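Subject: Sanity check before I submit

Could someone independently write out the structure tokens for this chain? I want to compare against mine line by line before I put it in a report. The sequence has 319 residues.
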Amino acid sequence: MEDKYALLIDADNVSAKYIKPILDELSKYGNVTYKRIYGDWTSTYNSSWKDVLLENSITPIQQFSYTHGKNATDSAMIIDAMDMLYTSELEGFCLVSSDSDFTKLASRLRESGKNVIGMGEDKTPSSFRKACDIFTVLELLLEDNAIEKEEKPAIHAMEKCTKQNNAEVVSKTEIEEAVVKIITENQNNDKITGLGEVGSRLVKLYPDFDVRRYGYSLLSKFLESFPKLKLRQEGTQVSVTLYEDKSKKEMLEEYVIQLVRNAGRQGVPLGTLSNKIRNRFGDFKVRDYGFSQFKQYIQSFPEIHIREEGEQNWAVYDV
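---
Independent answer below. Compare away.
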């Protein structure tokens, strides 16, 4: 049985041009049981929505703007969401808005064990994004769904907006380091890292993570662009591993053994050895080789043992 979701749209803060991408994206998660949209339908501002409501079986909820500056739509959405939470068997909610006022609602629904999918324009504050399990930028969906030519100006506006908010996009370097850490943790527990696990854990770390923000349509292609990562496929299973540059690894191992051997019986303090390795191999990180600590890495050499003297550890070559 498919998971059931409620779709709640804030018409005051989202354009009607996004409706098809929204429904297409939400269909990936399950069956949309509730489709409701909130706004003042007497206002000309929401007139663009009226044409698509019947076509997509979306129920409009009328909310008059009783007081200038007060958003009645927010209250109506929140009340309906809480009613659904307690009276319906839903797996999750999709909250469509670019307004941070729904941050508390998203947090409350998650506290009740519901999956919360947020969707909003690129201007959406980070507080609402992080309150959701998954957050998707609507401009990316618009571009991904190849919207008609008359809506192309919106894409150019999105590109401009993305450049202005570039600081909010997680860098590829940070993503790569996060994946390396995931793989290393699994290796330490003798676990294989599946492609699906990488995707789900990245979303948990960064709720608005979306490979489309980096110009890719598939997570696998995105990960293949990183020099430290390698994908392996066995049957239908795809796993993500650390790419080992054999020549570089061998050069590093030879260098370590040479340093320790030349030090004789006295050995080399681990701190000194670490500094020399980093001076020679500037991008050296022990987790790239499957270890969480430098000491563990040195202990992996069969020719070397660790001698402890007080608070200092020495790497000594076994003659």
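---
OP: Matches mine. For the report I'm noting this point. The domain at 246-317 is CATH 3.30.420 (Nucleotidyltransferase; domain 5).
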